[in-house]
Amino acid sequence: MARSVNSVASRARRKRILKQAKGYFGRRKNVWTVAKNAVEKAMQYAYRDRKQKKRNFRSLWIMRINAGARLHGLSYSQFMGKLKANNIELNRKVLADLAMNHPEAFAAIVNKVK
């Protein structure tokens, strides 16, 4: 009896990977083994960077709050400490947005905690 090979599933699997590799440069987009490695690596980066994105945004928010607070004579840590002491529960995302786009509102918060 002849060996049964499920070529339909194999082709579908390859097509799926090559479709994911669309837009890659050179052989990465159309050679199966190269494309498979490129897509696997891309998936690893995507998984890792979904976690890193959260860190990067928190870091950006802290920089923006620090810049806004220093305009009013406070460091970031002093400002955040005074916020906690005054029971003002605004998160860093909101504070950073206020510092960037609504400086008068941010100044009101700084004056409240001083």
From TrEMBL:
GO terms for cellular component: ribonucleoprotein complex; ribosome. Keywords: Ribonucleoprotein, Ribosomal protein, RNA-binding, rRNA-binding. Gene3D superfamilies: 6.10.160.10, Ribosomal protein L20. The keyword Ribonucleoprotein applies. One of its GO terms (molecular function) is structural constituent of ribosome. GO terms for biological process: ribosomal large subunit assembly; translation. Coiled coil: none annotated. NCBIfam families: rplT_bact. HAMAP family: Ribosomal_bL20 (MF_00382). Belongs to the bacterial ribosomal protein bL20 family. Binds directly to 23S ribosomal RNA and is necessary for the in vitro assembly process of the 50S ribosomal subunit. It is not involved in the protein synthesizing functions of that subunit. This is Large ribosomal subunit protein bL20. It comes from Myroides indicus.
